[in-house]
Amino acid sequence: MRYPFRTKMSFFFFLWALLFIVGGSQWSCQGTPPQEQTPQESTQEKASEKQVESASSEKNPETQEASPEEAALPDAQEADPTETSGETPNEVTNEPPPAEPSQEMLVEQTPDAGEIIPEPSPETTVEITPEAKKRTILVAVGYGGRRILSQDMGLTWQDNVELKAKGGDDKELLRCVTFGKDIFVTFGWRAFRSADGKNWTEFHRGWKETPPSPLEGVSGSNWRGGIAYGNGMFLAAGSSWASRSNDGTTWTTERVVGQTSVPATRRVLFGGGWFLLTGDSSLRVLTKDGQNWVGYATGGDNLKGAAYGAGRFVIIGENGRIITTQDGTTWPEQRLTTNPDLRSIVWTGTHFYIYAGGKVRHVSTDGLTWTQESLQNNPPSNMVYLQGHYIGYSWPGNLYHSSDGLTWTQTLKDDDNAITGITSGLVP
Predict the structure, then answer these.
(1) Which of 98, 100, 90 shows the shortest CA–CA distance to 36?
(2) 81-111 tens-digit pLDDT
(3) pLDDT at 328
(4) Distance from C-alpha of 427 to C-alpha of 67, rounded to nearest angstrom
(5) What is the CA angle 326-316-224, rounded to 5?
(6) Which residues lie below 8 Å from residue 247, measured CB to CB, with a gap of 6+?
(7) Nearest Cα residue to 144 out of 117, 175, 182
(8) Of 294, 364, 359, which is closest to residue 331 (Cα–Cα)?
(9) Could you say which of 38, 355, 380, 417 would form a disulfide bridge with 144 (CB–CB 3.0 to 4.6 Å)?
(10) pTM of the model
(11) Which residues on adjacent β-strands are paired with residue 255?
(12) Alpha carbon of 216 to those of 180, 255, 291: distances in Å?
């Protein structure tokens, strides 16, 4: 049967329309490759896409198994079965989920809050040791058994005690003083010790008494002219005797260099691990323990003072004499011919200073090469250098202070008992 041309055209148009509708449905099932999602995409939009994909899958039942790469994904990242089809699978984006609000984001800050300041840690308790609580004092001793102290490095003096007024070269004369093992010890014919520089205990008398003295003894008679502390022990020496102690209480006495007749020791100094004894007739000798002696020598002008620094002892004597030694094996010497009236010597940590008569002092950094300096006024005849301060003393009982060794201030004027020695120590 023959159909009119118009009928044929209507039929082809109908088929074309049907194919267009069916093809559109298939395209909507496959979808188009999704655009890259931004972190700001809402979760509602993602849910809508899931519903569309699910509906398309129902219209296209043809599926295929996941690839080995997809099967290897952990459970949390396993692909949705509805996202696979017979065609090339859609691109899967691995955008991280929105971050959970941090603790810092949850803190509400007011306009005046400023920076968030963490809570302060508990306060640290600093323990102050007994040693840190101690303070430095000076103690001076002298004629008549005099003992006096200063709590401000020689600017003022107090707590003066004496055995008698206007003492002389007698059994009450205290000739030397030192500090060690938390006690001050002073010697002459008599000996005393103190833990605070105020209260003193006598523990020795250098003469025979009838009945015998009940004091705990230092064997041997006569006086001690010098004392020092070092190597964990006290060493006091005078006349021909040397007494040693580890605690200032129990003492052992022996002859100096083991001989019965040696010149009198006037001073004892510790430095570089050695004790140096000097005295009359140019006596000089070294020891480390008060039992073994090195470099014993005598002869010549009397020695008047000594100091240790720059790795050597420097000894001064009459007529400009200077003797040096490092270990007692040799005693090289020289003489200063300009202003040779040498009276006292100190070591400041950087320089030796020898004070001569008049407004003069000699200066050296090594104890070997010396230059001369002029002073504005006369210095005291005797001095020590302690804790950065120069402390001077002169006859009869005057005391002086200087911060530079050039300008001196008299801090005590006394015509009673003269000073013979000064030291420093730490007390509670």
Answers:
(1) 90
(2) 444 444 444 444 445 555 554 444 444 444 4
(3) 95
(4) 88
(5) 85
(6) 181
(7) 175
(8) 294
(9) 417
(10) 0.70
(11) 241
(12) 19, 20, 22
